[in-house]
Amino acid sequence: EGTDLLVKMRETVPKMRKIMLTGFPTRQNAIDAVNKKADAYLLKPEDVKKILAVISEQLNLQKAEKKYSEQQVSKFIESRSREIDASR
To answer: What is the DSSP code (8-state) at residue 16?
Structure first.
């Protein structure tokens, strides 16, 4: 099951974006995919242009999250450095 793979992927590569593409859509499958943190859920047969658009969107979101994380770490380091300097 693809939804079982979502859990394994979250454990090994938590920041990877996950897109489900299914040929057997059910309400329960969609709910499971969302609950197991799928970032997108597509139905077969899907237009290749749509798939590529979703992949591009998810990659852009992943890049934005990485940039935000890096900025947060940088702000923390700067803030902590100022605190250390002030305490001296």
So the answer is: S
Matching residue, tokens 């935000």: 68
Give one DSSP letter per residue of 22-53, joined into a string: ESS--HHHHHHHHHTT-SEEEESS--HHHHHH
Q: What's the rounded Cα separation, in Å, for the pair 26 and 41?
A: 12
Gap between the Cα atoms of 76 and 40, Å rounded: 32
Task: Indicate the pTM of the whole model.
Answer: 0.66
Rounded to the nearest 5 degrees, what angle is found at the Cα of 79, between the Cα atoms of 71 and 15? 30
At residue 33, the pLDDT reads 92
